[in-house]
Specification:
Helices cover 31% and strands 25% of the residues. By secondary structure, the chain is of the alpha/beta class.
């Protein structure tokens, strides 16, 4: 465990200075561009701009390589079962106590980072199992900057879309009773399986709580808190989420 934590620290440390230097270089280019504009002819300025674009493309390529190294390392360390056709954009923060407790299907796209999700909200994607928890993500699923944490089991079926900054928790994290909550460890945490059925769409900033089933092709409105089952083909929204209407078609 100590070696794994040390390796993760080194890997993360390796990635961070790149972003810092990228920022420095970006501001340096802006300063140079302004100075060049006042001194040289327009043709020289255009050459300078072309050079800036080329450099930014190179930096973007380096960022992609570094992110890929980070992701491959985390997948290997935590023994994540992931399809070769799945796409991880940015650094996805996998974490688990037991190997093979996270599975990701074919053609699934997971965006993690402010550069990969333009709607705002959280700036990374966390997929984590605790104790005996399991997370099973199907095929053709899209997830952006969301947190999925399981102590029991979370199943996300095929063709599900999960918007930016969503939270999917199959447990309470802490006991509700004070006397139990202050115990170390807190062993009375309630947990219950979550199932998000095929073709469901979870709107940005929504929270799916323990024991919930979101039905086939159903839609959860942005910013909703879902505390009970949503039948197939319905739109629910609000806090707590309530029935709005049937999905058209």
């Amino acid at each position: 465990m100590k070696e794994r934590n040390t390796s993760l620290f080194i890997t993360t440390l390796f990635a961070q200075p790149f972003y810092t230097w990228q920022l420095y270089i970006y501001f340096f280019l802006i300063i140079i561009k302004k100075k060049k504009t006042t001194v040289f002819q327009s043709s020289v300025v255009f050459k300078q701009l072309d050079g800036n674009v080329t450099l930014m493309i190179i930096l973007a390529s380096l960022r992609k390589i570094i992110n890929g190294i980070n992701n491959r390392y985390r997948v290997r360390v935590y023994k994540v079962s992931i399809s070769h056709s799945a796409e991880l954009n940015g650094i996805v923060y996998f974490s688990c106590n037991k190997g093979n407790s996270i599975r990701i299907g074919e053609n699934t796209i997971i965006n993690s980072g402010k550069l990969y999700n333009q709607i705002g909200g959280d700036v990374r994607c966390v997929i984590r199992t605790v104790d005996d928890g399991k997370i099973i993500i199907g095929n053709n699923v899209g997830i952006s900057n969301s947190a999925i944490v399981s102590r029991e089991k979370i199943i996300i079926e095929d063709n599900v879309m999960i918007g930016g900054a969503c939270k999917i928790y199959d447990n309470d994290f802490h006991s509700l009773d004070y006397s139990q909550r202050v115990m170390k460890p807190d062993i009375h945490v309630k947990k219950k399986r979550i199932l998000i059925c095929e073709g469901a769409f979870i709107g940005a900033h929504s929270i799916i709580l323990k024991g919930v089933r979101v039905g086939k092709y159903s839609v959860i409105g942005a910013g909703s808190v879902v505390t009970k089952d949503v039948p197939d083909g319905e739109i629910w929204a609000g806090n707590p989420a309530v029935f709005i209407r049937k999905v058209d078609g």
